[in-house]
Structures are given as C-alpha cells and as structure tokens.
Amino acid sequence: MRVKVVCVGGGPAGLYLAILLKRQDPSHDITVHERNPEGSTYGWGVTYWRALMDRLHAYDPESARAVEESSVRWHQGVAHVRDQVTRRPGDPGHGIGRHRLLAILAARARSLGVRLEFESEITPDDLPDADLVVAADGIHSALRTRHAADLGAEVSEGRNHYVWLGTTKVFDSFTFAFAETDHGWVWCYGYPYDDGHSTCVIECAPATLTGLGLDTLPEADQLALLEKLFADILDGRPLIGGSSATVWPTFRTLTNRTWHHGNLVLLGDAAHTTHYSIGAGTTLALEDAMCLADALREHGAVPQALAAYERRRRAELVSAQSAARLSAQWYENLPRYIDLPAHRMFALLGQRHSPLLPYVPPQLYYGIDKAAGRLEVLRRLKRWLGPRAARALHTRP
Hints:
Elements: E1 4-8, H1 12-24, E2 29-34, E3 45-49, H2 50-59, H3 61-69, E4 72-81, E5 84-97, H4 98-111, E6 115-118, E7 132-135, H5 142-146, H6 148-151, E8 154-167, E9 174-181, E10 184-194, E11 197-204, H7 206-212, H8 219-229, H9 231-234, E12 239-240, E13 250-255, E14 260-261, E15 264-266, H10 281-298, H11 302-332, H12 342-350, H13 362-372, H14 376-395
Parallel strand pairs: 1-2, 1-7, 2-6, 4-9, 7-15
Antiparallel strand pairs: 3-5, 4-5, 8-11, 8-12, 8-13, 9-10, 10-11, 14-15
Helix pairs in contact: 1-4, 1-10, 2-3, 3-4, 10-11, 11-14, 13-14
C-alpha cells in the first residue's frame, strides 16, 4: 500500500525511517523536513555497539557499510581516579561523528528518492496533508507539545548537571576520569569518534557546579578550569566548546502515556529519552525506526501499525530505561563508591545497571559479584533476581 509520509526532524531516527520505508516500497511518498541548514547539528560524536551494527547491516547494508567505515573502535575502558589508573576489557565500542552519521544517512535517503527539505520548519499549524506524520524532532518536539494532553507527556529532571564538549585528544579507550575538587567531584566520559577528535561529557553535582562557579563563568574560563581539572587525560589538548558550552542543564527524562495520536507518531527522543551515561540514545532512535518500518510493512492500516509499533517498542525499552535510571542514580551517589580501591570502584561502575547494587553495601556487592563469576548457583540467583528487581523499579511511581 502506497503511503504519504511527512517526517518532521532530520536526525538519525527520521532519516533512517525514510530510508527503510523507501527500501520497502519505492512508491512511498516520503519527505523529511529539518528546520536547520544541512550540515549543521549539535553534539560531537555518538556511540554504539556491535549489536546495532549487525542490525544496520540486516536492514540496509549500503548505509551500514558507510557508517562502519567512518567509525572508530575501542575494546576496553579506562578509569582515572586521583592518581590511580585501571583498565578493564569490554565489548567492542564504536564512535562516529554526528555530522558524519547524518551526512551518510541523508545521502542514502536522497539516493532512494526521499525528499529532504532543510531550513524547513513544520509547525502544528501548517502540517502538510499526509497518511502519516512522524514527530522525530527531539525532546522539545513542537508536534508532541501541541498534543501533550492526548499523548500524556511527562518530563522529570535529573539532579546532576552536565556539558557536552569536544577535544582534539583522541582517546584510545572509553575513558572515565574523576577529578576531586574542594567543592566535590567532577567527572568526564570521553570517547573517540574520528581520527582527530573525541567527545567529552562532563558532569557534576549541583553544589560542585556552583562552588566552582561553572554556572556563572564565561565560556573561556569554564574551559580553562576544566582543562586544568582533566589535564592528565587531555595531554595538553584543548577542550572545544559550542553553543551550549556555557549552559549546564540537568538531564530531562521524557515519557509519554502513548506514542501516537491520530496519524501522528513519535520517534526517538520525541517519544522517550534515556540518560546519556548508557550511550544508547542514537541506538534506540535507530531501533525505533526499524520497528516502525516493520510495523508499517506487516500491517495494512496505519492505526494498527502504530499500535503494534508502540507495543513492541515499549516492551523492548524496559531494560534500557531501567539501566539508564540506575546509571544516573549511580553517578548521583558517587560518594558511595569513589573511595573504594580503583579496580573495585571501576568494577562497580560496570555493574551500575544492576537493580541490586543500590541496596547492597558496595564492598559486599563486589565480593558477591566476584564469587558469582565462579559459582553457577550465584550466577543463577543473580540472573533470577536482576530482571525482577528491574521490573519492580521500572513500575515504581
């Protein structure tokens, strides 16, 4: 069945949905509207893991090859705490510049016959006629806001503040660095995304932010202070600011009671957000696009397809949303873990998605987890308790 689709938002979710729908049926009439000029975007690099790349190859091998060729990889994590450095092997991680990812997806969409309209802002009052309108315009989605009562949108604010920066220091691993100050801890998540740059997300508690004056300092002074705090990992390389460098927001977790209203459907951050510390935002947005494309192929009518899409994605997201909530809480309770020996602290950093960890003394949890690696009965108990605790946490008001 030929459908006319208007996608509002030219981020990864909107572009990839357009690609998949055109691959399913070239007769589909698909337009992507993006309010910003082509080639302009926020952020530096994004992360993903091998499982996503495997799915990209299954859904569209051509764009997957281009993304993989433009990505950098790492195979371990490293943590810097005071004067201690500890490393842990991990699943292979991948980073790609957000600009590069969007360029790849835009070129692929165009090659399939998708119309891309840049500097084209679609408001709720001037929606083009279409069988399906996709709100892929992020957490501040104007389309979702117009229908907030029908969709049941709710936003909760996290406690800690963060800033998204770049650097010309190319990290060889996913890097965590924790810097102690007179006003508390400041920490960094750093990862490479091309041959000359890395992303640095820097976070701290509210009292630390105000104590250091980061909420009032000019951008240049902010960057100078942060470069001094993280001199050990930057190796003299500068931090690079941007339009948001002088703003330290708290993370906003968005949920919606339902993801569709009439012929309007929410995609990616317009539908849900997950804390940046699990590095899953782009992955979940692309998986939304895969799921919606599948639902539209499998169901003859748009209403049935939207209902199927929402059911499936809600179920799939329970684990990621629980992990994100627990990860944010781990960092909000950093003093609980930071004075452990560095290798133990790093081990529990890797376990921060566990719903059991907040309720077990850290040293005891470390011992149990280490023993569980050797004893099958403890591994089974952990596997049995973990999902149940996660579901209980997810459904708790």
